[in-house]
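Q: What does the predicted 3D structure of Non-specific lipid-transfer protein look like?
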Amino acid sequence: MAASSMALKLACGVLMCMVAYASLAHAASFTCKQMLDTVAPCQPYLENAAPLTDTCCSRVKFLNNLATNGTTADRQKACKCVKGAVANSTDSYLGLAQGLPGKCGVTAPYPIGRTVNCTSVQ
C-alpha cells in the first residue's frame, strides 16, 4: 500500500473514530472513502510532513459535532472503519492520529487504536 494511501486511510480512521458520518445525511449509509475525502487536509500532518493546520482542525471539529447526532450503530460502523484504517499504520502515524483530537480541541468518543472493541462502542 502506498504511503499516501495509507496516510489517507489513517486520517479517515482518526476522524471516523470521533464521528458517525451517517448523521450528516440523517443516518444514511456512509463509506470510509467519504471520510477520506472529508479529512484529506489532515494527511500532511499525519504523514509528519507538515504542521497541523486550521483547516484540518476545522474538519475534525465539524465531524466531532456530527457525532452527537449519530446512533450507536453509526458509531460502531465508524469504529470498524477506524480499525481498518489504522490496522497497518506505522506507530508514528498511529501516535499522531491518537493525539489529533486533543490538538484540535475535541475529545474522541473512544480510544483510537488497532484493538478497539467496536461492539462495545455506545
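A (community wiki): The C-alpha cells above were generated from the sequence. The two ends are 32 Å apart (CA to CA). The chain has one domain: 3-120.
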